[in-house]
Amino acid sequence: MTNLPNIGKPATNALRQLDITTLEQIAIHDEKTLLKIHGIGPKAIGILKEAMAGQGMHFKEVMKESATHGVDFAVFCDFNCDNAPKKRIIRDYLVASASGERAALENVLEESFVWNVPGEFQIKGREAFIKELQANLQEISSLEIQSLLTHGKEGSAHGTVINKKGKHVYFSDIFTFKSNKKDAKISELTSFVVIEE
């Protein structure tokens, strides 16, 4: 493994928050995504690119079709969900909920959608959920989706959101779809959230 070159304290700290400490880990990401991380700028990218070239590595190529189009934060996850439509729906939901993108949320959520946060609250109705989400949006630096699983009418995902102040929010979501059909919308979500103090 090849350690990161000296890219400056802000960029190094931003990458460490994502547990990225080697050039090999950098090489699995695309340049455009890394530039969305708070603390990483063109200078750091140039230094990384030069160091990677010296090791025979390069940034991953940007995918043409992406759920992250138009979002201003980095998204780390497996984008190869074309053979698993419900995984794609969950991924699109997670990106849309982090960005507050109304049209994308309406596209994946049933009108009668219910959001449960055990021990905290329950919100009934897609419109009420979107209003609550948009009223509490954070400035996000990155969203990392560590796993996406689906089977029949159910699915789950967990990951980490890092806001622009460096605070981590860890989430685990359990999804229920309206039916077993591959294009079914999400009818219910139960979320468990841990906010770093």
UniProtKB/TrEMBL annotation:
Q: Does the keyword S-adenosyl-L-methionine apply?
A: no
Question: What SUPFAM superfamilies does the record tag this protein with?
Answer: C-terminal domain of RNA polymerase alpha subunit, NTF2-like
Q: Which InterPro entries match?
A: NTF2-like_dom_sf
Any one GO MF annotation of this record: isomerase activity
The highest taxon in the source lineage is: Bacteria
- Alphabetized UniProt keyword annotations: Isomerase
Protein name (Swiss-Prot/TrEMBL): Ketosteroid isomerase-like protein
At the highest ranks, the source species' classification is:
Bacteria, Bacillati, Bacillota, Bacilli, Bacillales
